[in-house]
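Example record for the data management plan.
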Amino acid sequence: MEKFKVGILGATGMVGQRFATLLAEHPWFEVACLAASPRSSGLTYEEAVGDRWKLEEPMPEKLKKMVVKDVSKVEDVVQGLDFVFSAVDMKKEEIKAIEEAYAKAEVPVVSNNSAHRWTEDVPMVVPEINPEHYQLIEKQRKRLGTKRGFIAVKPNCSIQSYAPALAAWAEYEPYECVISTYQAISGAGKNFETWPEMVGNIIPYIGGEEEKSEKEPLRVLGTYTEDGIKLKEGLVLSAQCIRVPVLNGHTATVSIRFRKKVTKDELISVLRNYKGLPQEKNLPSAPKQFIQYLEEDNRPSVLTDVNFEKGMGISIGRLREDNLFDFKFVGLSHNTLRGAAGGGVLSAETLVELGYIQKR
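Corresponding structural encoding:
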């Protein structure tokens, strides 16, 4: 198959760098453009990033000499592209505006940003959970006046370690959850070299994360209607989000109540058998096993499990009865792979599979 020509907006930041490494050898997509702020424009990718490469994986050789374009010059960037990934680092209103500008230039935008997550006609999707929400794209295209262009977003990285379990257990009607997330520093675009004060430290506040953790699952788990997404009813989430001295991997501890009676063994069986469209269609970035359940008391742990299924799988463990709630468990997801760029790439593959992204 002839590869789709793709661009990365915000290519010099940590998520942009992760997109670059994931797409360098992708079987469907070929990076044809890198774009960033005006200060990087005209430099090679290698020059623009300089000493700010933050990943353990090296910069892809084939991208080092690619000249970076000015992300604000939309018409220049989109020449010859089939769609773009967005990881731009701007103020929320600026992100909204520039992503809409790319969509109106008839280029689909698969965004890692939060700016459009609550725009009524923009789908916010975890491909294994709610791909039917992509039907919003037709409504969005009517608003934008486009034939090809649209914006699709993925949810916040902090919900990936527990929302899949809530989706898998939907038949048992979870209705109350208390959640604590222990979030890696790469979620802030940092590593230990650039954030040395996080070594041996915990920060009990991450701006905006608790609101996202409580509200975004209600949209992901909601129902598509012709009028928009009907939020999940009867489910209340209470979250605390803490920054911990871990490079990659968001851990969540969750206590949960169900309306229907269920056993521990039934819950575990459902997790292990849960799959979605990416698994059924065998998409390139899809984990073969979306959710693994681990029996050991000391798992999931970041060191042993964060890279499960190349960082695209979810790890659940320590499911047990709770004194106040019905059950409690621990979840783990890779925040810059499943939670960010990897989730974006899987979203794009899903959009191609469903026919929303086509070659020009």
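Summary line stored alongside the record: The chain has a mean pLDDT of 97.
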